[in-house]
């Protein structure tokens, strides 16, 4: 029976091999363990296996887990969509948010007076079932981002359409990488993070420049 420790080791090995294939350094890729529906006990097992970055999708579930596991030595990432009425819970509990896709959300988070690192979510495939803005929407946000005092823009995030063969979505990751370069150049920013790649496609994402991969099933197994 595989364990969380086995899952972490296997994913790290796959990341290292993907880095070798693409001439990258494994330490440049942050492994974020996605703990949606995962127990606090399994989060602790991942901690014991060397994971320090955890991603949550739902604020209420996350708050319970954060209170149980704690924040010392842990980086908590909000990777799910942020509802306006839940935004107040993010500053002070989470360190990084990956899912900003509207100016109003960034402005609301800024008002709480707590520094927060943010990535902007792009829906590059235009899937109606997923959140995220397009390139024009990103530009509208970045045009005003300097007016926010607590929000530090650090990168872009996307989720590629599901495909049994991850090669079919490789181009999505290339598009996000190129978009990061254009955004930095146009708005005088120095964003470095590319949050892209999940259990089904993170190796291809790493080969295309991912600096953060969000992996759940490949570490913890299928969710019940």
- Share of helical residues: 25-40%
Give the low-pLDDT segments: none
Taken in chain order, the helices and strands follow as: HEHEHEEHEHEHEHEH
Biggest β-sheet, characterized?
8 strands, parallel
Describe the fold and architecture.
The protein is an alpha/beta fold and 224 residues long. The chain has helices at residues 4-22, 40-48, 59-69, 103-110, 135-142, 170-187, 202-207, 217-220, and strands spanning 30-34, 53-56, 75-78, 96-100, 116-122, 151-158, 193-195, 212-215. It has an eight-stranded parallel sheet with strand order 7-6-5-4-3-2-1-8. β5 (116-122), α5 and β6 (151-158) form a beta-alpha-beta unit.
Give a summary of the structure in a few sentences.
The protein has 224 residues and is an alpha/beta fold. The protein has eight helices and eight strands; from the N terminus they run H-E-H-E-H-E-E-H-E-H-E-H-E-H-E-H.
Present the secondary structure layout:
Blueprint: H1 4-22, E1 30-34, H2 40-48, E2 53-56, H3 59-69, E3 75-78, E4 96-100, H4 103-110, E5 116-122, H5 135-142, E6 151-158, H6 170-187, E7 193-195, H7 202-207, E8 212-215, H8 217-220
Features:
224 residues, alpha/beta, eight-stranded parallel β-sheet, 8 helices, 18% strand, globular
